Amino acid sequence: MSYFLDPPALFLIGIVLLLLQKFFKMKYQTVAAIGAFIALVIFMGGSMLLYLDVIRWPFPDTQGSVWMFHTNYTGIRKEDVPVPLVAAMVLIYPIWLYLGYAVAKRLAKRRIDRVLQQSSSHTMCGEKLAVGSIRLDMS
Questions:
Q1: Is residue 75 left, alpha or beta, with left meaning phi > 0 and alpha meaning psi from -120 to 50?
Q2: Which of 63, 106, 112, 138 has the fewest CB atoms within 10 Å, counting from its CB?
Q3: Which of 10, 66, 65 lies closest to 43 in space, CA to CA?
Q4: H/E element, 57
Q5: Quick one: pLDDT band at residue 139, thresholds 50, 70, 90?
Q6: Is residue 91 part of a domain?
Q7: Domain assignment of residue 29, yes or no
Q8: Number of domains making up the chain
Q9: Tens digits of per-residue pLDDT, 70-107?
Q10: Which domain holds residue 49?
């Protein structure tokens, strides 16, 4: 957990959730529940415990707030950041996860639409694509 690493991690987890949904044919509600647990309990809960110095970051053993701001690298200390800003950064964690899911869904839809469009109107290099199961005719 870190204010600098969490947003990209949540974005990537959103992408992975879409892939898992497609692979295991899960309902959207199931994926939403898993995503909510990850964002709310693991990331938001863990970040707050680290920020408040209730727990320490184990790898390497570091004070929670020092890890959250990467004080050793950025010079930003817990005292330098207003509490409302910290709260705002944590409250948008679910948005990062949703953005990853939404971007992946949009890219997947665009790719599927492109394949279907090519299969219904073109032949590519002598290969015929069939709409549906996408079969290649190598004649």
A1: left
A2: 138
A3: 10
A4: strand 56-57
A5: very low
A6: yes
A7: yes
A8: 1
A9: 998 999 999 999 999 999 999 999 999 999 999 999 99
A10: 6-108
43 domain-assigned: yes
User: What is the rounded CA–CA span in Å between residue 32 and residue 120?
Assistant: 34
Spatial separation of the C-alpha atoms in residues 17 and 7, rounded to whole Å:
15
Strand order in the sheet with 123-124: 123-124, 127-129, 136-137
Looking at this protein, which amino acid is placed at residue 139?
S
Non-local CB neighbours of 10 within 8 Å, separated by 6+ positions: 38, 39, 43, 93, 96, 97, 100
pTM of the model: 0.79
- Work out the mean pLDDT of the chain and round it to a whole number: 86
The string of DSSP codes covering 76-93 is --GGGS-HHHHHHHHHTH
So what's the pLDDT on residue 59? 87
Query: Would you say residue 118 lies in a domain?
Result: no
**16-32 pLDDT, tens per residue?**
999 999 999 999 999 99
Residue type (1 letter), 68: M
